[in-house]
Structures are given as structure tokens and as C-alpha cells.
Amino acid sequence: MPFDGVGLFVNSKEIKVNRVFFVFLLVLTSGFLGCSSGLDAKGVAFVKGRELFNNKDYETAIEQFTKVIEMDEKYVEAYAMRGNCYSALKKNDEAIKDYSKALELDPNHRNALTNRGLAFKAMGKAAQAKSDALKASKISD
Fold first, then answer.
1. Is 9 helix (H, G, I), strand (E, B) or coil?
2. Which domains are present in the chain?
3. What residues have CB less than 8 Å from 37, skipping those under 6 apart?
4. CB within 8 Å of 114: residues ≥ 6 apart
5. How far is 99 from 118, CA to CA, in rounded Å?
6. Which of these, 76, 74, 84, 75, lies nearest to 53 by C-alpha position?
7. Could you report the per-residue pLDDT of 31-58, keeping only the tens digit for each?
8. Is the full-model pTM beyond 0.70?
9. What does 50-104 look like in DSSP terms, one character per residue?
């Protein structure tokens, strides 16, 4: 009997069935893998935007998140991430607008609330910063 690589011996019929099953799975998943791992255009743009953000290419990331928002104006994470880009560029007015939009869509989005507070703080608006920090501390994960 042939060795299966795990410490068990199998007969040739089992190997044939396993190969057929493997080929079936390969064919089945190839359709998903050929389409950007199953992501639609919005998902691809969002992932690209996050990569650009992580690489500190904030301007280009903003373009990607804007594309996402144009495809789906209720995509909360796109507003939050675009706000992060604006914040990194010290464009706090724009960041606050995006964080506020994210919070309009999801009032319990802790990161948008925390980051909006930080943007308010950077602008010297201590009362708004404190208010956002207090609200964020009351939101559970």
C-alpha cells in the first residue's frame, strides 16, 4: 500500500477518489480565485485603499476610498478610512466630515468616534474632543 504522507497507508482506490475530489475543488475554487479572490469592484478598491494607506500613500488611498463611496454611499468603513487618510495629511476639517458621515451611518463606530475626537483635539476643539472620547469609551467591542 502507498504511504499517504500522514502516517497512514491507503489503497489505490482511495488515492483515485482523493485526486478526483482535489481536481473538483480546484476547478470549483478557480472561478473565485480568478476574480480577485471573489471581491467585487468595491471590495477591490477598498483593499487597494487600505494597502495604500498602510504604505502611507494617503492621497492615492483617498482616491480609492472615494471610488468605493461612489459605488456605495453607505459604506461606513470607506468613510472612516478616508477620514484616517485626511487625518494623516493633517486635513482635519475633511477628516471630521468623513468621520461624522461614518457616525451618521453607524453611531456606534468606535474608531470613527475616537478618531474624530483626535481630529477635534488637533484643531484645538477640546470640548468636542472630550465629548467624542467619552462617547467612545461607552461603546463596547
1. strand
2. 40-137 (1.25.40.10)
3. none
4. 132, 133, 136
5. 11
6. 84
7. 444 444 578 999 999 999 999 999 999 9
8. yes
9. HHHHHTT-HHHHHHHHHHHHHH-TT-HHHHHHHHHHHHHTT-HHHHHHHHHHHHH
